[in-house]
Write a structure and sequence with these properties.
Length: about 160
């Protein structure tokens, strides 16, 4: 099994590493238009936490982000006690090593540290089973985002 570390991204170099993983997974692999992959919440501010998985060799393996407070309001029904997990991506070579699970747990820990009671996410339909195994429960109808089917899910922390 590979050795890796999951931590909050700090500084521009870490954020660039997060964005590079997202570009590889979402833009290159899945065909999401680059102009909609990145948004105002990618800026370094108190309402956004980027989490990065890094291999023992320093290579970035995966990323995800947590939005909370007003930044998450449109994703959580305005409930300030709920954070929004999003942009979870793991490089193809690192899949199956537990990186995705570790990233989700890292984001949940960041949510707890910020006093949040639950985490919502919009899972690609093909990933619903992954999140269900981690304790998330789907709600509402399937919807399209960037032309890809998604389901809203929530986990109480």
């Amino acid at each position: 099994m590979s050795v890796f570390l999951v931590r909050e991204a700090v500084g521009p170099a870490d954020r660039d590493a997060c964005f590079a993983v997202r570009k590889e997974v979402f833009v290159v692999e899945q065909g999401v238009p680059e102009e909609i992959e990145y948004d105002a919440f990618d800026a370094a501010d108190a309402a956004t936490v980027h989490v990065l998985a890094v291999g023992a060799d320093g290579v970035s393996l995966g990323t995800g982000r947590l939005l909370h407070g007003p930044a998450a309001a449109d994703r959580t029904g305005g409930d300030a006690s709920v954070g929004s997990l999003g942009r979870l991506a793991v490089n193809k070579a690192a899949r199956g090593l537990g990186v995705g699970v570790a990233l989700v747990r890292g984001i949940e820990e960041a949510a707890r540290e910020r006093g949040l009671a639950s985490v919502d996410l919009h899972a690609q339909t093909q990933a619903v089973g992954f999140y269900e195994r981690l304790g998330y429960v789907a709600y509402g109808a399937e919807f399209l985002d960037a032309g890809i089917g998604h389901r809203a899910m929530r986990r109480v922390l």
